[in-house]
Design brief:
This protein is of the alpha+beta class. It is built from 20 helices and eleven strands. 51% of the residues lie in helices and 13% in strands. Strands 3, 4, 5, 6, 7, 8 and 9 form a seven-stranded mixed β-sheet that branches. Helix 10 packs parallel to helix 12 and helix 11 packs across helix 18. The longest helix is centred in the middle third of the chain and has 37 residues. The termini are far apart. The structure holds flavin-adenine dinucleotide.
Amino acid sequence: MPLLPRSERTTHEVHNQPAPRDGLALWDEDAPLRAAVARTAPAHASHLAGFAAAIGTAEALEDGRLANRFPPELVTFDRSGRRLDEVRFHPAYHAMMRRGFAGGYSALPWTSTVPGGHAAHAAMVYLLTQVEPGVCCPMTMTYAAIPALEANPDLAARWRPGLLSTSYDGRSIPASNKTGLTMGMAMTEKQGGSDLRANTTRALPDGDGYRLVGHKWFCSAPMCDAFLTLGQLPEGLTCFLVPRWTPEGRRNAIELQRLKDKLGNRANASAEIEYHEAWAERLGEPGRGVQTILEMVHHTRLDTALAPAGLMRRALSEAAWWTRERQAFGRTLIDQPLMTAVLADLALDWLGALAAGMRVAESFDRSGDPVQRGLARLTVALAKYWSNKRCGPVVLEAMECLGGNGFIEEGPMPWLYREAPLNAIWEGSGNIICLDVLRTVQRAPEALAAFYAELDTARGSNRHFDTALADAKQRFAGGVEEAEARWFVEILALLLQASLLLRHQPGVVADTFVLTRLAGDWGRTPGTLPPGTDAAAIAAMI
Ligand SMILES: Cc1cc2nc3c(=O)[nH]c(=O)nc-3n(C[C@H](O)[C@H](O)[C@H](O)COP(=O)(O)OP(=O)(O)OC[C@H]3O[C@@H](n4cnc5c(N)ncnc54)[C@H](O)[C@@H]3O)c2cc1C
């Protein structure tokens, strides 16, 4: 016989747990993004607001979840034993790709008739990364391949229209029959990724084209319609375009060995592939493969600089939403001084990364000017390096703001945590980026001069910034040793972020950034802000 009536035995009454979010207001709730777009791509603001609305719906979030819950499958053979070498995706993946294509994620910078196309693209990278970063990979590579194709005007004329389509076509059929195309990149081999000159894939002339024999150890988005790849000719490493289907309408001899079992998102596939006399066309001069594909790498790096800003933003928006709704010890979490300090400190990394990424994108838009082109080359590396180095710690600490709920797979924090290291490794890992910065400033000292000149425009508003800038100029005036390159890149990246925050953000944000990141008034874990900081004002930016 129960001791209590049924109404008093109810235990499953939920309080003090925020209701699940049924969509994300990616544009309306992100004032720093809107301000950055107003500076760099004002003509695209309404388009970006629409794009953000389309990918922030509950339906889009659910597609993102499903695309990861049901990962792609490798289908090597058909039922009769003939090679297929295809990857099959869940319909939700294709739905996400359609949204990206429709928004002009890959195409807009190359088709837009108004300024700010690259900045608008950068904003789309930042936005879509917050919802489902896996589909960004093939669209980023498609965006980045366009300028590399200019090395062969005939190839460019044939491939550009499909690559610049806003209609996604996920079918595995010859490119000429498709309404929209994607382009991947296959450079890394088993014996070396950073050191591309160690590539062993051979290219054998065959009529108007070539036949490639060899392997690639990392080939992401292997269902792309073509890949830019590297192979050896007698003249040296050379760039080639390898289509999935030959001009005669046969499957090209690109065998998919297996899919990588990767950290990070599950929606995108990365394959190990072999070329068995795969048909290819040469792109660029024989022996100049690295220089040719670098144009693609340069543009891909822009996206790898914005993606961590997006990941940090999503992690922080989850942390802010949770801590605004949840109480502990009689007070809302966000109002507890220690929690406010943590959120404020993390917000500074996000704000710095977003500001730097959008400034870099602006220099891509203005790269007709050689100074801006030099700045783009230098600053994209700085932003990629530093924003990715901060992404992991920020996401980890944001996860902790949700307590145990941050650790549960039903929420986004676990996938954000797994995704956080990806963009640091891909497209030039940390040391390689630092060495690249050294090369840039040695070969084009005018890029460093232009960079310092831009930082100078922020002088006079914060004495710690002025001191840090003067110290950096003095410290590195005589050149930079290889072993010191991480110091050089870190300091320059922080100065870039600080200068932008000083110019474009409220004083409390910029001054706290400078005090902590450049003047050393900062602990070893987030939330260690200088005494007297108005942390609530900074946390309110999230
Ligand atoms: C998710 C994901 C997707 C990817 N997709 C693709 C793709 O689509 N196509 C493709 O071609 N590749 C792809 N890659 C591969 C990636 O670009 C390489 O892994 C990367 O370039 C590093 O090459 P590696 O793995 O051979 O490492 P290594 O070159 O062996 O480097 C190992 C470490 O040594 C460091 N290092 C190397 N040289 C030096 C030096 N001189 N001084 C100091 N340190 C050094 C590097 O910074 C790195 O930390 C992908 C990787 C990941 C993780």
